Amino acid sequence: MPTPKTGLKQGLALFTLAAILLPIVVIGIMLLTYHERTTLNDINRQNVRMATAIRDDVNTFLEAPLRTVSSVAQFSLDSDAAAHLDGLLVRMVEGSGFYESIMVLDKDGIVRSLGASNDARLNRSDYLGIDLSRADHINQRPTAAAPRLVRHLHFAPHRKADPVTDTPL
Amino acid sequence: MPRPIPRVTIVLMAVLTALVLAACRKNEPVRIGFVGGLTGRSGDLGTAGRDGALLAVDVINASGGINGRRIELIVRDDQSNSEEAKRIAREMVNSHAVAVVGPMTSAMAEAAIPLSNAAKLLMLSPTAASYDFNAKDDYFLHLNLNNDTATATADRLVSGLGIKSCALVYDTANHAYTRSSAEAFKRELAARGGVVTSEQTFNSKDPGSLLELTKTVLARKPGSIFIIAGAVDSAMICQQLKKIGSTVPVFVAEWAGSCAFLKTGGNSVSNVFIFQHFNSDSRSPAFSDFKNSFTRRFGDEPDYAATYSYEAVAIIAEALKKNPDPSQLKQTIIGIGQFKGLQGSIALDRFGDPQRPFSMMQVRNGRFALVE
């Protein structure tokens, strides 16, 4: 079987093709690299803008619950208001729409006052007097002589239980 | 007339295409599912299990994956809901998962097993331990065993503590596990001359007043109490006992043996007994490495659910390295039989039921401490 020969015509065609394609490939790679870099920079800038916006929204969202918590702290320290604290906590939980329950603990981590929403189906008598001293958010707080306030930060739409704080669902 | 394409070129192109296809297949990840209750009152078990599985996947992928293929973990929350567990089992079949780690509770496993059997999809549960799953030649294998701990609890009560009466409290939401455990315990206690003074049940999905339940239990003046429930509910019952001032010895089932039990129970769970196959103070080098990596990554120490989930992923990976055919996975695992666990070897019998040693632990200073 005769071996096919590469003629002058074919050789020229190949060289012409290479002469055309090579610059296109080189310039293409350079453009792609540049494009990739600028796209990544754009994405990074957009991510930072989005993260900043989310942070601001979250801060605004948390302001109201934090005000609620501050009010509870004030009331729990006021001996005259202590008798009405449970009722107040219930109203705050129902009014805020943010908490499923708010518990006031003494310095030993024992639950002394409690307000819970109806949705939480939390049995009051079960929770009053229990020892939450080993729960993470209590354990990690610095020891204080004054009563401490513990928030149950449960986001109602997600309905996720926190086994540490033990909010029943 | 166009020149015909030489045969050599055709053969070369075919070989090249086959190589490209093989390369694509080689790069395709091995999909392993994870199913557990990540939310709700038993969420501690699911989240710990998920974290253990994630860590195992990371470690295996970092060391080259399964014969060069990365593992992709598909995580799903069954919400401790049977219908959701069934839906997820179907989803796992459709997503071509080679195996599933989970479900984490016996009730969910009971719902999913018929589907996994029909699709011949292997389910390897780290924690589900109902007696009903033992000695069955199906596509459900498990790493946790329950028979011996119920016997040991009865034995410890009568022979060890000299107590012959016990009140039984259990959660009907995970009936597949709690019912079989309660039955075994009653049988073993009776065989040793003991008696169950009362049997109280509750449903953790709507538990009602645990304080009232606890008062009812104590009214019969039992010599001891055995609680078969999840970590949060067991801890809450111990809290009620402490509030009432009870000093009756309390045993809890292995299901409760997680960090959530210690954290939710506070000082109320001090001195509570538990028989576990898992030892949080194990000095095994493999477990120490795992414990350090887990604590560094997730902030908490690993419990039995995290440890067994890690082992489950490792077992699946080891079997797939030996035989990459997923349809043979169950036979490959049973064929290997003996696996190196994090705290010692794990032996699986011909039904995929495990044999592993257990110990009696007691809660001391906020930890599960080894008693014997």
Architecture overview:
The complex is a heterodimer of chains A (169) and B (372). Chain A is mainly alpha-helical and 169 residues long. Chain A has helices spanning 8-77, 85-96, 124-127, 136-139; strands at residues 101-105, 111-116, 148-151. The longest helix of chain A has 70 residues, at 8-77. In chain B, 46% of the residues lie in helices and 19% in strands. In chain B, the strands form three sheets. Chain B has a seven-stranded mixed sheet, with helices on both faces. Chain B has a five-stranded parallel sheet with strand order 2-1-3-4-5, sandwiched between helices. Classes of the chains: A mainly alpha (169), B alpha/beta (372). The A-B interface holds A 109, 121, 123, 125-126, 129-136, 159-161, 163-164, 166, 168-169 and B 39-41, 43-44, 206-212, 231-232, 235-236, 239-240, 242-243, 260, 262-268, 366.
Task: Supply the number of helical segments of chain B.
Answer: 12
Mean pLDDT of chain A: 78
Which CATH top level class of the largest domain in chain B fits? Alpha Beta
Domains of chain B (count): 2
Work out the number of β strands of chain B. Answer: 15
- Strand residue percentage of chain A: 5-15%
For the largest beta-sheet of chain B, the strand count, sense and barrel status come to: 7 strands, mixed
Average residue-wise pLDDT of chain B: 90
Order of helices and strands of chain A: HHEEHHE
CATH homologous superfamily heading of the largest domain in chain B: Response regulator
